[in-house]
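Example 3.2
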Amino acid sequence: MDHFQYADGRLHAEAVPLSTIAEAVGTPFYCYSTATLERHFRAFETAFADMAPTICFAVKSNSNIAVLRFLAGLGAGADVVSGGETTRALAAGVPADRIVYSGVGKTAEEVAAALKAGIWQINLESEPELETVARVAQSLGVTATVGIRINPDVDANTHAKISTGKAENKFGIDWMRTREVYARAASMPNIHIVGLALHIGSQLLDLEPYRAAYSRMGQLVETLRADGQTVERLDLGGGLGIGYGPNPSQTPADYAEVVRTALAGLDCELTLEPGRAIAGNAGVLVTKVIYIKEGATRKFAIVDAAMNDLMRPALYDAHHDIVPVAEAAADAHLFDMDVVGPICETGDTFATNRPLPEIKAGDLLALRTAGAYGAVMASMYNARALPPEVLVKDDTFHVVRQRIGVDDMLARESVPDWLTEP
């Protein structure tokens, strides 16, 4: 469920008409619902109540600091994968002792900043990274609290570009080398190893890969403890899928039952890293129709949003439901249309042969389920502006990121003295 519903013939974000926001900020823009964010976060809290995990929101899914601050106010920590995300999480008010840092390419500078901030845990993804963290911690005179991210070699049956838990993926340490690497970390000064971590992919709609991965993790815990190692924490990653249009969803309660069964009796602190499952349905991208074009074989709705604003359809062939902001009649005739953007790429297509009610130039459309991996992946390709982001609470809205346009781009560029005017 989300809080983007029709009322009085107009699509609303909670109690605010999206058309009202469009008049104020222009199009395209992203809009997020605090009520939906809270509903989805509470769903994880409730489902896992008996396990009392630390729920660290995956910042990569939506890094707007207002969104992060709102979730931190509910009790969320942060799962970060870069130095920039660490800085954003801290700036948003996420407590350092609720921040987990993963990612395969942490630099010494990023590690140093994380250690100085006192973040809760760094998840090691390779043996060279272990060496780097140990060296940096020693130079700072601190002890780094770390976990080992294992690669369990489990196929999550998801899109190849968001698969992270197979042997050929770049993430984590081969699970068969866990004992050796864990023992090495445990013997190193300035390293405090506390447990294991994994993340097998994103947009998982089947829970069986989780069951396989967590079962392997549980077996490793028992093996490590038999070796005399201490294993206090398990970071279970994120990746729980959501329904984009016709796709089915798994609920946090379904997911919790898999965790409860697979890891029963281990007595470890748990960390969860949901991102999409909290933020995805909490956002929409609103765009305006520029033209209706009658092609030789199909009809096009050309809109002012583009692949630079929402990359998912071009990058992953992803589906997003598209609905008019002005409510269509229940018996409205539907027309198959391609919804496309203005960028000079055939891939700049949001939908192909999508049944839509009759629409015309100037109408507003909303692309649903755009709160995760939307604005955070946007670019300035074709010298297009970055869309603004708007946060709604009840009957009020606030622009939490202004539109960043071509003048802002030019202000950050310069021409050397030796280049004369053409």
